Every structure is written in structure tokens, then in C-alpha cells.
Amino acid sequence: MNQTPDQLHADQMADTVAFPVLSAAELEECAEFGTRCSFAAGEDLFRAGAQPFDCYVILSGEVSIIDVLTDEPTYLVRLRGGQFTGDIDLFTGRRAAASCEAISQVEAIRISSDKVREMLVRQPTLGARIWRAFQRRRELLMATDFQGLSVYGAEDDKRTLETVEFLFRNGVPHHWMNIAEEENATRIREIAGDDLHYPMIACGKRLLFRSPGLTQLAEAIGVRHRIPEKTYDVIVLGSGPSGLGAAICAASEGLSTLVLDGLGPGGQAGSSSKIENYAGFPNGVTGRELAQLSYLQALKFGAEFVAPCHVTELKRGDGLYQVRTSEGDVAISKTVILATGVSYRLLDVEGSNDLLASGVYYNATAVEARMCKNWPVHVIGGGNSAGQAAMFLTQYARKVTLVVRGSDLRKSMSSYLCDRVAANPEIEVRYHTQVTAIEGTEHIKAVHLRDDVGNVAREETTGVFIFIGARPRTDFLPAEVARDDKGFALTGSAVAKLERWKEQRLPEVLETSLPGVFASGDCRSGTTKRVAFAIGDGALAVSCVHNFLGTYPI
Ligand SMILES: Cc1cc2nc3c(=O)[nH]c(=O)nc-3n(C[C@H](O)[C@H](O)[C@H](O)COP(=O)(O)OP(=O)(O)OC[C@H]3O[C@@H](n4cnc5c(N)ncnc54)[C@H](O)[C@@H]3O)c2cc1C
Q1: Could you tell me the pLDDT band of residue 272, with boundaries at 50, 70 and 90?
Q2: Count of CB atoms within 10 A of residue 161's CB?
Q3: Residue 9 in this model has a pLDDT that exceeds 70
Q4: Pick the CATH number of 231-339+516-549 from 3.40.50.460, 3.50.50.60, 1.25.40.10, 2.40.240.20
Q5: What is the per-residue pLDDT for 5?
Q6: 372-422 pLDDT per residue, tens
Q7: Which CATH number applies to 149-213?
């Protein structure tokens, strides 16, 4: 061992939010949910990798939590009478990240994860204390030198980035070892020799995988990726803001809820560096933080998450829905909420990824616009969203250049908007032109534009706003789910007008033309593509589910 139990992180142990001591009355409340057990000194309460694992409330004696994934096992924390083991992985269903060993004779109460969840709901004051402790412990763990997984790879390697994103979204402790740094490149060669296929996944000096698939990685680290065999009240497809909003409402209102996502919680919002227009966060919140908090909230109420899980088919039969995945699983439910969002077409030119949110934007709200006050900006695209953005940005920027590939805006933009753009002296429309590069280090400096005859111009700018199209992720849906001409799912009043709606009742406001299937957020026709809207839409979809199932809570 690197240390003895007496040489633990003293500052962490002093954190009374992470490691509270429960009162005698609280210990009695805990006893209602578990069973008494005892351990001799040196015995394991649980081992790292255990799945599932239980929570232990220590009544007497002491235990230590040990990181056994390091090259040398390391003591992390010591817990004594009145304290308890566990962290958020009790709810994610993942393997235990560390081991727990009795230092002396221990008397404890063992509580299963289901019972801990029940305790959180039935004993809200105690529950809030325990939940805050679990959250804080994870924060502390990530802030220390807790090893977790090391992912070696380069920042321009798509598979490395996807792996890091997958681990991040699913809250798996890890470190990304960018091999552009000589120290990391040398270290992985010491571990794996010259047979390098990125991403390389290691634990300390132990090589686990050379370029694993996400499913293989999920299996190894215990991220839940297989679908349980049961019939759910509702399956939510997608865990962006809308799917998360739906999952929190559905699970908190007693519906058995399964959430499936190709990568994990977050959606597009996960790539937003700061969301400033969401209620309750006057200083803004990063998309990742909002997604992680929402994910935890949904877990707390018992929503089950499965990832990676690509939905490829939705079918109705015998009054139930079958959702098939490319991983070969089938999920069954009484209702389905589609929250699969959109894929924005990304501008694939040099510099565009590096400067995302640092001058390269895929939306134009007052937040981005303020940063461009009195400076020139460029808007890329010829559709309505580009036209609206250009008009809006003239209120802030010194000059707006609208960069259009074609020769006529009227082919892609509403005529009223074309007239406004043409009449606005602050907007210059540059036809037959494409972006070839974006220049800058910490923030954008200039954009390179090439016209049809090959002339390239470098223009200084403070913002490039990209609106080159978004495609709803609805391709996998059956023909029974009617969509608009762009592929967004139709719902409610739009469905009521369709001949194919044969029910004796009107469709619920977010119901698609396939009864019992609801759509929310960006994938739904006519929605405002915003986080707040998507979350609210998710909640509204759940109220439609209740109406459909006849389970509306009073
Ligand atoms: C860079 C960026 C910045 C933004 N900034 C802001 C902002 O500041 N404020 C604001 O209000 N809005 C912002 N937006 C818009 C906002 O993020 C979206 O409106 C919102 O994320 C939509 O949520 P959603 O849940 O409907 O869809 P998404 O966020 O697109 O989530 C859909 C989810 O479904 C999953 N999925 C899709 N298809 C499948 C499938 N077949 N199988 C399994 N899973 C699937 C995806 O993996 C994804 O996780 C921003 C968007 C971007 C791209």
C-alpha cells in the first residue's frame, strides 16, 4: 500500500457533507431499511468491481475505502461509527469503483441500493443528507488523484474523443492522456510497446484494451448497456435535455422508466459551454453540468439508463411497443417518448472544432451576440435560421457578412426575410462563397473565404455563426409516425388532421400519429430549438403519457 489508514486525505475526511456522522435517531431510521451484519478485521465489505453492491451504515468499528485500481493500492477514506459507505454508482448500477475493508471488528447495517432509494423517498431529510454525501464524494474523487481509467489517444482521433465523451457522459472516472504530450506518449509505449491502436485504455500500468468498441468497454467497466427483460410504463428514446426532463418527471411520478441513448446523457446541450437562458442559473450553467445534475436527479427517482444503445426500430404489437437496438436488444413498454433531437451539420473546415464556442457558434442568442458588439461577424448559410441570425446580429455587430454557397437566397429563405436582409444596410450577402478555414488560437481571429472562381480572401471577424442545416434523428421510425417535409415528427393538432388518425379520441398534445408514442424537444415539428423548451416539452410528454395510460397523478 502507498499509505496506512492513518495517512488519509485529512482535508477530505474533514468534509462533513461528504462524510457526515448520522445521529442515533437517523441510525434507527436506517435500520428499518436494512439488515444487521458484522465483519472481522481484514474482511472485505465489498470489492472494487462488485456489481451490484450494497451500502453499509457503520454502527461500531472502522472500515477503509481503498483504490485498488492503482499500481499500488491506496487508502482513500476511513469511516467509523455513524458513517456510511457508497456513492452514486449505487444508483447507476455500475461496478463499485473502490474496495471497502474492515480495519477492526465492525457492526453494520447492510442496505441494498433499491432500499437506499426507498429511504431517500420515504425519509426526505435523511435522504437529502445521504444523497448530498454521495454527490460530494464523487466530486472529491474526481478532484483527487484517484486513478480510474486512463484513455490514451490524440485529440484529432475520432474514436478517442468518442470514448472520452462516452465515459464523461456516463460519469465514469477517467483521465484523458493526450499523446500529443511527450510524457503521455512515452508512458503508453512503456505500458503497451509499439503495438498502439488508439484509444488505448489502461488502469495504472495495466493495459486493458487496444481500441475497444464502446459496447466492449461498457461491458468491462460495468456501464449498463443491456436492456432488462421487463415491460416498462415508458421508454424514453434519447437522453438530451428533453429525454432527461421526461425521465425526471416520469420516474418521480411513479412510472417505470427506461432511458436509451447512443452515447449517454447530455445530447447537444452537452457541447454548450455556457447556457445563460435557462431558469435558475443567473450566472449560466455549462451544458455538461446541467446534463449531469439532471441525470443524477432522474437516477434518484429510479429511472434506468442504458448506453451505448442505438435505437434502430420501433414497432407496435399486442398493445405494447418493441424498441430494437443495433446492439441486438429489445425493450418493451406501454408507451414511448421520442426525444432523439437533431444532428447539426457541422462545418468541417480547419479550425472550426478548436474554436467551438470561442468565436464559432451554432446558434445566435444575445449571449453570443453581446460578445461581438461593434465587431464584424460572419453568418454561414442561406436558410431561414441564417437569415434570422443575420438580422438579429445587426443589433450588435458592426457589420454582418452572410456567406451563401448558391446564387439566390430566395431558393432557400422565406421571401419576407430575403426582403429584410436585402433592405438592411448592415448586411452584406456574399454569394457563390464558401468558408475554407477558421483562424485563431484562444479566440477566432479571421475566416478564409473562397469564391466560385477560386479567389481566397482572409477577413477579420469576431464570430462565425454556422447555420448549414439540422436533421432530425427520426430515420429509424416506422411509416406510421407521420413527419413533416423535413423529417420532424408531427404531433397533436397536426396529427388530428391526418386521415391515418383512426382513434375515437383526439390525439394528446404531444402524441404522434402512432397512438401511445409521443415526441418532445428538437425532433418534434414546430418546436423552438432551445434547452428550456426541450426540458419543458419532456415534462409535457409525461403528462400525455399519464392521460394515455389513465394514471394521471392527483
Ligand atoms: C453547440 C450548441 C450550443 C447550444 N447552446 C444553447 C444555449 O445556450 N441555449 C439553449 O437554449 N439552447 C442551446 N442549444 C440548443 C439545445 O442544446 C437543444 O435545443 C437541446 O439540446 C435539444 O434537446 P433534445 O433533448 O430535444 O435533443 P438533443 O440534445 O439532440 O438530444 C438527443 C439525444 O438523443 C440521442 N439519440 C438520437 N438518436 C438516437 C438513437 N437512434 N438511439 C439512441 N439515442 C439517440 C442522442 O445521442 C442525444 O443524446 C445549443 C445547441 C448546440 C449544438
Answers
A1: low
A2: 17
A3: no
A4: 3.50.50.60
A5: 46
A6: 888 999 999 998 879 988 999 999 999 999 999 999 999 888 888 899 999
A7: 3.40.30.10
**Number of residues in the chain:** 554
Residue spans per domain, the chain: 5-143, 149-213, 231-339+516-549, 360-466
Q: 341 CA distance to ligand 1 centroid (A)?
A: 5
Output the CA 272–ligand 1 centroid distance in Å: 10
Per the structure block, which three cell numbers stand in for 62?
Answer: 472502522
Within 10 angstroms of residue 182's Cβ, the number of other Cβ atoms is 8
Q: Whose CA is nearest to atom 27 of ligand 1?
A: 341
The residue behind cell 429511504 is: 119
d(CA 317, CA 315): 7
Which of 88, 82, 48, 41 is CA-nearest to residue 65?
48
Instruction: State how far the Cα of 249 lies from the Cα of 518, in Å rounded to an integer.
Output: 15
Atom of ligand 1 nearest to the CA of 278: 11
* CATH classification code of 360-466: 3.50.50.60
Asked if the domains 231-339+516-549 and 360-466 are classified in one and the same CATH topology, the answer is yes
Q: Say which CATH topology domain 5-143 has.
A: Jelly Rolls (2.60.120)
Least confident residue range of 88-97, 315-324, 340-349: 88-97
Task: Grade residue 7 by pLDDT with cuts at 50, 70 and 90.
Answer: very low
- Regarding the beta carbon of 339 and ligand 1, being less than 6 Å apart is answered yes
Spell out the SS3 assignment of 53-80: CCEEEEEECEEEEEECCCCCCEEEEEEE
> For 21-78, what is each residue's pLDDT tens digit?
999 999 999 999 999 999 999 999 999 888 889 999 999 999 999 987 766 778 888 9
Ligand 1: residue of 166, 225, 242, 268 to mutate (most ligand atoms within 8 A of CB) is 268
pLDDT tens for 62-108 read 999 998 776 677 888 899 999 999 988 888 888 888 899 999 999 99
Nearest CA to ligand 1 atom 20: 531
Instruction: Using the atom order of ligand 1, give the atom closest to the CA of residue 274.
Output: 8
- Going by alpha carbons, the residue nearest to atom 35 of ligand 1 is 238
Question: Ligand 1: which of 272, 367, 481 to mutate, most ligand atoms within 8 Å of CB?
Answer: 272
Task: Compute, in angstroms, the gap from residue 274 CA to the centroid of ligand 1.
Answer: 14
Q: Say yes or no: CB of residue 261 within 6 Å of ligand 1.
A: yes
Q: How many CB atoms lie within 10 A of CB 443?
A: 12
Q: How far apart are CA 533 and CA 203, in angstroms?
A: 41
Note the pTM of the prediction, 2 decimals: 0.83
SS3 179: coil
CB 272 near ligand 1, within 6 Å: yes
Cβ of 258 below 6 Å from ligand 1: no
Span 519-532, pLDDT tens digits: 999 999 998 888 89
